[in-house]
Amino acid sequence: MNIQLTENLGEVNCGRIRIYRKFLYVSLAFGVLAVMLSIYYFMWLSVPSTIMLKVGMDQKLNFNVPATGELYKEAVEVSGNIGTGRPKDGGSIHIDLGRPVTLKANQIDQYKLQLKLFGVIPLKEVSVEVIQDIQLKPSGIPIGIYVKTKGVLVVGIGEFEGEDGQSVNPGKYVFQVGDYILEINDDEVGGKKELIEKIKYSEGQELVFKVQRGDMVIEVKAKPELNQNGEYKMGIWVRDNAQGVGTMTYVDENGCFGALGHGINDVDTSTLMALKSGTLYHTEIIGITRGATGSPGELTGYIEYDDGNVMGDITDNTTRGIFGVCIPEIAEDDTYDYLPLGLKQEIKKGPAQIICSLGNGTHVYDVEITDINLENDNINRGIVLKITDPELLNVTGGIVQGMSGSPIIQDGKLIGAVTHVLVQDPAKGYGIFIEEMLMH
User: Fold this and answer.
1) What is the rounded distance in angstroms from the CA atom of residue 46 to the CA atom of residue 55?
2) Which residue of 143, 186, 327, 350 sits 20 to 30 Å from the alpha carbon of 44, by its own alpha carbon?
3) Could you list the active site residues?
4) CB of 437 within 8 A of CB of 405?
5) pLDDT above 90: residue 91
6) Is the pLDDT of residue 6 over 80?
7) CB contact at 8 A, 396 and 406
8) pLDDT at position 30, please?
9) Long-range own/partner contacts, residues 107-111 (CB < 8 A, 24 or more apart)
10) pTM of the model
C-alpha cells in the first residue's frame, strides 16, 4: 500500500511539474512578444509620420532608428554618411535612418518613404513634404475672441412641463447634442434668437429641420409643444456664439495670424465649434488667478466688443488653432523680428523661451523643453515643456488659461505654441509644433 501511494504521488508531482513548465514557457513567450512589440512601438514613435523640409535647404535627420526605406519622387538630393544621390523620374533613393542623413529638396512637392526595420519588417509609410521657407513674426499679445457658429449648436436636450402639467420632450428622439441646426422649413437660421422665434410662432405645426451632424447634413422633423406659459418649445438648449481670451502666436508677411494652438470647443459638448464668423478684439489683462496643483490658473481679460477695438477677423477654427487676418496696426508691429521656422526634427531638449503678456506688455520668459513627441495622437501635445522663469512662476505658478498660443522660441527659431497645462503640476504643460499650425 505504501509503495502504491508513493508511485501515485510521484505521478502527480510529475504532472504538476509539466504544467508549471508549460506555464513558464507560455509566460516566457508572451514576455518576449511583449518586449518585441514594445520595442517595435518605440521605433514607430521615434519617426514622425510626416517630415517637413524647407525647399532648397539642407535638412539633417538623426532619428537613430535601425530602419531603411525607399524615398520616391524626383529632384531630391541626399547627402551625409550614406553618400549622395538623385533619383531619376519615377525612381527612388535608399535612405538609412540608422545613420545621420541630410535631405535637400529643390522644389515644393510631396514624397513617400517606405520604412522597414532592419530592412525587413514593415514599420510605417512616412510623408515627406517640402514647404516654402517662410519666416513668421512671434506675437504673444493677448486677444479677445468672439466667434459665431455656423447654424445653432444643440448643447442639451431635456423635458419641460407641458400645457397639461405633464412632462414632455418633443426633441428627445429627434436631435442629438452636438447637432447644428442650419435651416427650418428651408429658411436659414441666423442665430439662437431667430430659432426660438420660429419655434415659438410655429402654432404646433410639424417643422422640418436641416441639421449638420458630424460630417453629414440631414433633415429631421419634430412638432413643438406648449409649455405652462402657453409658448411653443422644443425642449432643446442651444448656443450660437462663444467668447474668451487667448494669445496670438504669430503674424506672417501677408498679415495673416495664427493663435491658440488648439481649436475653440463648445464648453458643454467639447466639440469643435463650426465657425460662421469671428473677430479678434484688443483685450486688457486685469487679473491673474495663480495656478496650483489640481486647479489651473487663469488670465482674466477685459474686452470691449466695439468696432474701434477690432484686431482682425477669424476665418478658420481648427484643431490646430484659430487663423485669420490682422488689421495693419497688428501686422506692422515691430516688437519682435521675423524668425525662421524650427521644424520638429530640429527641436532638442533643453532651454527655450515663450512670449506672453501678464498685463504689462509682452515679455520673454525662460522654459525648458523636457520631451519631444514626434508621433503623438494628440497633435496639440507634441512639445512637453516646463516653466523655469522665476518671475513667471511667482506671478502665475506656471501655465494658466489664457496663455494658449504663446509662441515657443528655441535657438532663434519659432518652434511652436503653448496649448495646455498639466493640471497636477501647473509649471508643466504642452505645446504644438509650429509646422502643425501651418497645416491648418
Assistant:
1) 24
2) 350
3) 262, 389, 404
4) no
5) no
6) no
7) no
8) 87
9) 107/55, 107/75, 108/55, 108/132, 109/73, 109/75, 110/73, 111/71, 111/72, 111/73, 111/76
10) 0.86
